[in-house]
Amino acid sequence: MVAPKSTHLPEVSGATELVTGSLIVDTGLRDLQTVVATLAAVAVATEATVSVTLEDLVPGATRKIKLQVWNADGATPGASEVAVNWLALGK
Fold first, then answer.
1. How high is the pLDDT of residue 46?
2. Residues in the chain where the model's pLDDT stays below 50
3. Taking the CA atoms of the chain, what radius of gyration do you get in angstroms?
4. How far is residue 90 CA from its own chain's centroid?
5. In the prediction, which pLDDT does 45 show?
6. Do residues 48 and 42 touch, judged by C-beta distance below 8 A?
7. How far apart, in whole angstroms, are the C-alpha atoms of residue 63 and residue 42?
8. 90 sits in which H/E element
9. Alpha carbons 25 and 87: distance in angstroms, whole number
10. Cα(91)–Cα(19) distance, rounded to whole angstroms?
11. Given strand 64-70, what is the order of strands in its sheet?
12. Which helix or strand (DSSP H or E) is residue 9 part of?
C-alpha cells in the first residue's frame, strides 16, 4: 500500500492504518527527514504503544516504514487490530 501524498505539500504523507502486530507501509517519499506514529485509540494492556522503523532502502524505490504495536510490557507484539496514525516528512 502506498500512502497518500499531499497535493498541497508534496513532501508530506501520512494516513491512519489498522495494525495487528506489525504492518509495512510505503510512504510514497524517496528521502525521509522524519517519521512519527501514534495510537489513534485509547491504549489498553494488549495495545499500549506503537513504534516506527525504516525498512531497508531499495534503490530507485520509495521509502517504506514498519509500524509495530506493543503490549504494555513493551516486548510482546499487540494481539488485536488497532488504528495507528503516522506522518512522514521528506521529499
1. 87
2. none
3. 13
4. 15
5. 85
6. no
7. 29
8. strand 82-90
9. 11
10. 25
11. 22-26, 64-70, 49-54
12. none
Burial class (CB in 10 A: 0-12, 13-18, 19+), 8: exposed
Grid cell, residue 5, equals 501524498
What confidence score (pLDDT) does residue 33 get?
Answer: 93
The pLDDT assigned to 8 comes to: 58
Does residue 18 contact residue 67 with C-beta atoms inside 8 Å? no
Give the pairing of strands 32-39 and 82-90: antiparallel
Residue 91 has a pLDDT of 86
Q: Are 28 and 86 in contact (CB under 8 A)?
A: no
Return all residues near 23 (Cβ < 8 A) that are at least 6 apart.
Answer: 17, 66, 67, 84
* Residue of 12, 77, 73, 24 lying closest to 52 (CA atoms): 24
The C-alpha cell at 89 is 516528512
CA distance 25 to 44: 24
